[in-house]
Amino acid sequence: MSDSRYTDLDRPPLSQQALSRALVRPGSLWTALSVVDRTGSTNADLAQTARAGAPEGAVLVAETQYAGRGRLGRPWNAPPRSGLTFSVLLRPRVPVQRQGWLPLLFGVAAASAVRRLAELDVRLKWPNDLLVGERKLAGILAERSDGAVVVGMGLNVSLRADEIPVPGATSLAIETAGRTAADHERTGGLDRDPLLRDILREIETHYRDWCEADGDADRCGLRAAYQAISATIGQEIRVELPGERLLKGTATGVDRNGHLVVDEQHTLSAGDVVHVRAAH
After folding, report:
1. What gap in Å lies between CA 50 and CA 64, rounded to an integer?
2. Is 184 a residue whose pLDDT tops 90?
3. What are the backbone angles phi and psi of residue 190, rounded to the nearest 5°?
4. How far, in Å, CA of 72 to CA of 99, rounded?
5. What is the predicted pLDDT for the residue at 1?
6. What are phi and psi of 69, to 5 degrees?
């Protein structure tokens, strides 16, 4: 009987062995990397591992999730091997009030890797959605587990337009549909293996710099890097707050703790916000 992982030749499986050999090395942030065919949630699985005392640097990749979720518990489903779905376990030794930067750091790293490999103008919608234009390419979710932080990401890679589960989403395949085969081969933008390697290497670089700066996003350049690729700063926005309250204004920046600044007077953390939309 044929291996079901190879039934869709356009969506080959990831190799745990090859990825581990490339990323899990002495002195690397990444201490273990596992690829599973199917799980409920990589974040939930790694949170359980964290509670059991696992060291920093574990990476869990799932070819498909059946209970994946985004911010506010929103469900997310996609065909097997059509994207990159993974989580990492971190134990930052920086002040807790600065750890809100972790999902933004993750967004900067992922956007940088995708911009380079896929040659797309990927931007960040506060706090950490990856956008191409107004369309969502990837989402990031950070959750605290005892003394650890688990950060997960779902990036749409080969999803076709008829497979997109929610309006307003997109994928690398959709955004690069007009390119020739030679273009795709040159950029490698649809090959999940180099994409995952590059994202994890970018995360490691930014994370080490941030930790060495004791979580100071200005000292390590993280705040400047985030604001440089923000799709939100400078925009007129509508912010839905808990209790059916609404705030309208201009997003003027991100403060030292990663909070969104509106009209240079209102400061919002991700936990305070239901949704941020462009004002029309």
Report:
1. 21
2. no
3. -105, 5
4. 19
5. 40
6. -150, 155
